[in-house]
Amino acid sequence: MNFDALTIVYILEIVVGGLLVGVGVHFVPVGGAPAAMAQATGIGTGTVQLAAGSGLTGLLAAGLMMSVTDNIWPILASGAVGAMIMIDATMMTGGWIYAYAVGAPFASAKVNYDPITGYSQPPYVAPGTVGQGIPTVCYVSGTIGAFMGGLGGAMIYYPLMMTNHNPSLSALFAIGIFLVNAVLASWNIQGTIEGFHDPKFKRWPKAFRSCLVATLILALVAVTITGGA
Amino acid sequence: MTVGGGAGGAPSAIDAKKLRIYGIGGALVGIYLAAILNSVLGTDIFSILAAAGAVAAAVMGANAVRRVCGYGIGTGVPSIGMLALGMGIVGASFGLSTAEQLGVSMAGVIIALVYAMVFGYIVGAIANKVMGFNIPIMEEGLTDLSGAGAMAIIGWSYAISGSLAYADMVSKVFNTGYLAIVFICGGLAILHPFNANLGPDEKQDRTLVNGLMVGSLAVVAVGLCSLATLSTTAAIITIVIGAAAWYYFYVWYYRLVKRDAAAVVGTGLLPPSAL
Predict the structure, then answer these.
(1) Domain extents for chain A?
(2) Cβ contacts (< 8 Å) between B82 and chain A: which residues?
(3) Closest approach of chain A CAs to the CA of B72, in angstroms?
(4) Shortest CA distance from A56: residue in chain B
(5) Which residues are registered as beta bridge partners of A43?
(6) Which residues contact A51 (CB under 8 A, 6 or more apart)?
(7) Of A114, A146, A185, B177, which residue has the fewest beta carbons closer than 10 angstroms?
(8) What residue segments make up the domains of chain B, in order of their start?
(9) Tell me, what's the ipTM?
(10) Cα separation, A179 vs B90, whole angstroms
């Protein structure tokens, strides 16, 4: 393994990808168990499940694109779009369940007016809960988060593929890096967040610094791995 | 066999240091014994020993999850299990690949363990210093978890590949996609015990026996995978021993649940009016 200029570019790409994942998690409306009971705003599962789901879809999309071309831009774009489709489909079907099965009005408890639609929120927040469903601002925020996550996942996958030329090894290694960054970010938001309008969003620089150190250590070894055989 | 080394069965708490020695020692002994016996005798039926070593490592990981999550980390317990396996998979592939490049494939396990534990310590330090968790055992807990994740991945992967050579690992475990099964079953063995038993009446022995139980199920799973990669005899041995261990620990776990429950009441079937 020789450390030439290209290797440094690969390391930087992995680090930027890890940072995109870490910051992207802050955009996704993660509601956790309370949201599953329609007692909090967001998607009713944990950060890691959402990050893994969108990340894997992004990786699959990026991998599929990588099987036809080596150009980095369509690969990054398909990774980002794949993750966005996954998160948007989850939020949309989740929204149908909240609206038509649970019967809860979509309301955010963190802001008085939805920053995008301008609709008033507090009258619709049921007493004893911190909002329900996925309001417009959370949906938009989640889409941005998925874009960053998918872009980050593809950005980790691409340099791995270029160094070891083994799709399954690169994918699983990328999932490893992805999970480390997603978990660090989810610890930073203490499990739940509504999106970029949530006061917790201001904590992102902490996740940025943490993911920078963690991904750098992973990236340095990632480029030394060979494809075997 | 090293499966029993994870928990002594004593009702009193087992020290984390002791469990760490059992876990890492059990994993290293299991994997190396399997590798040496298999290569010396020219067979692959000893692969079960590596799987058993991985169970010991998973129990150590389950204990680390229990200690760290006992402080409350704000997110669900599964996140820390996925983190352990995420760190483990990077450590495992780095260790095995580096050892192959250096020409000593037997050293891969040690390199993976050392890298994973150092990385775990750094992530723990980040969580405490940058994110302000202030959990006193965070560094220690994540060091254990990361090491346990790497050992679990290598041990169970060995039970599928039957060889420590990186090329064999890649062609039989990575390229076939069986690593995903190792990943999720190993993750369950580490995160599920505390996730299922947490609460004010959580007892260490009950949690760890649950870990042994889920770990044995993972042995059955890798045994099924090895049907496609190893000799049928080796795969059957792994499946049968895994299933027997699962039954043994399931009965043990059920006994502990009954011991700790306030009451075990049979509710019967639904009343006729509800049908």
Answers:
(1) 38-222
(2) 48, 52, 179, 183
(3) 10
(4) B180
(5) A30
(6) A21, A25, A28, A149, A178, A179, A182, A185, A186
(7) B177
(8) 14-260
(9) 0.84
(10) 11
